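Chain A, query sequence.
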Amino acid sequence: MSDIEDRANDARRLGLMIVESRSGQALAGAIPHLREAADLFAREARDLRRAECLIDLARVHLRLGQAADAGSALGADGQPWDPSPFWEETLRLFGAHDQAVRERLVTRVRSADPLPLVIGLHGAGWTAAQDYHRGLPDLKVGYHRGWYGLAATYNVIIVLPHGHHRREETMSFAAPEQITDIAHLPHTLQARGYRVDNTRVYACGLSMGGQEALMAAGRHPDVFAAAVAFNPVVDLATLQRDIQAIDRIRGTDAAARIANEVGGLPDQVPGAYEERSPLSVVEGLAGVPTMICWSDRDFIVPRQVSHHSYRLYLQVKALSAIAPICEYNHTCSHGVMDFTQEVCWQLHEWSDYELALHWLLIHCRVPAVTG
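Chain A, predicted structure.
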């Protein structure tokens, strides 16, 4: 990466920080930084990155009520801006499990060649759109970057399933039907005209999404080239018990909703909890490159060492010492010294999908040799 591109990335990052942290007329402070980023990317012939900056700039102008300036931003060089290299769309596709119509948010770039496919899986209670656009409105700035713009930057297709739940919308918690749909998505997208590189299909998610990424890769190692999980649920029965105390603190009803989704409490339907827990697919995960990022201070999914991420890592390594799995406790990566309840909550919400993409895209699945 050149010095000019580094400067462009820094300028855009500063502009987006202003957008995230300010409101009203103060948003105007982001404009010169986004313009600078777009100009620098143009000098490096990074057309897609420049287009991202122009979209960011237009959105700032629109929030300021400057419709004409927004239009100028999208044609900043005096030429009509062509958005065709990348776009977002919501598809209504048939689920592989029951053929019911389900929505998928897809971001793709225009390419004549097959592209890597990244399946992004959202956290419990979130929508796919919220996961795409930096999470819930009250998240700490910078703790969840989202997927926005990454398809164009890394020349990939990103698809975010809205979730195949049984009873609780946005809380699928690795329902078997959801995992079947996730594994079938490459075929489903190809049937709709998307050019997918079947050797480069990846799963990635935060919290419940991390649980589903691990389940999909472990249950279908013949589909996925690699997987990344941020602060995942690994032992669903343990989470169901632990989260009752969290519900009392937060005033939520997550424990009841998990029980409703799964079909009862862990003591009532232990098998149903086990089939949704990545601990049940250790053998499959041992053959899929996997990265798990977790925190020992996680407030939402506690006991990451004894019951969740680190436990899963140890079980995979016990099965195969050379299994391609790695783990990282990110607690000390944020410059935090005072681990208040709020901070420990925010540590659970941390994810860096761009970091995940850097790691995922170095992996390629070798198709099995037949005959």
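The first strand starts at residue 86 and ends at 94. The beta strands are 86-94, 101-109, 115-121, 157-161, 196-206, 226-230, 290-294, 325-329.
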